[in-house]
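Posting this for the archive.
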Amino acid sequence: MDNLGKIVSGAKLKAMTYTVFDTDGTVIARHLSAEAAVMTALTHGDRNFDIRREENAEGFALWMPSEREQQASLVKSEITSSATEAARARQEIFAKVIAASGSWQGPTIIDDATYDLQLAGFENE
């Protein structure tokens, strides 16, 4: 299990798997590692992204297509890391993507345990 599944904004959590949903609510993929879930969400629909070192060389930022121009050039997002090591910054940024999931246009990521509870709730109605 990757370390990203254990890290959210610096806090240690149990390793989890995730489900990724398209904007219409259909399941794109289930039982993914944290890294695989983020990669699936950020690249779904031929989208792309990049993690770039900040111009001041203090940390990294996630660059994504603007919400208005899905396939156009990448713009800096609000998701950043102050880590100076690229691998650590990637983990922190991916954890923040999971935490912020649902607050932007694009696929949503939730942990499988939460999704399983939602499914059980629907079955009990």
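The first helix runs from residue 34 to 43. Helices lie at 34-43, 86-100, 112-123.
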